[in-house]
Amino acid sequence: MLHVDKLHVAYGQSEVLHGLDFEVRPNEIVAIMGRNGMGKTTLMKSLMGVVPSRSGAIMIGDTDITAKKSYERVASGMGYVPQGRMIFSTMTVEENIETGLTVTGDSEVPDDIYALFPVLLEMRGRRGGNLSGGQQQQLAIARALASRPKVLLLDEPTEGIQPSIIREMARTLKRIRDEKGLSIVVSEQVLSFALDIADRVLVLENGEIVREDDRDSIDEAQVAKFLSV
User: Which CATH superfamily is domain 2-39+46-227 in?
Assistant: First the structure.
């Protein structure tokens, strides 16, 4: 569903990602793990078209999106939940979600989105800035799902979220994968969360993939070494 081939990304003369190769299969959740500064957010922004790539290719299914702008990637099936959530704080919950409908032609938020996030239905008239961190994260995911993506990217979704909400988020992401048949890519530092949701774990170290493990065969101690400061 998502294919990344020899992806090189640089800021000016400083290369950050050094020829990444990986795939995400249909209905698969892949966790991209690594410490701060290893390139996880740069990878997410590059996949979304926020940061241009120096070379390489990005495909969604049979569609080459390498040269497409961010909004064109959304139309091609990419959904994005950025680090820090980046919701519109002065807009209502419903208005926030409606911003994700622009590529679908829908005028109203689909019921299935509110079914995934009942708290957002209750708070649909409340301003986004008045929600808790966990509720804002749910809102950011709902907004991304409103565009009916084939691939959903989440950048550090557990950041600033309390443990009980993290467990709830894990259940919701697995439900989204199962009910909507999405491929999901999560950049993450919290190993317990990644192990809870991921079918496969990739470890990013200094802009290169240094480990790739299926969930069933993962060596948790070895992965943890790459996450410790």
Answer: P-loop containing nucleotide triphosphate hydrolases (3.40.50.300)
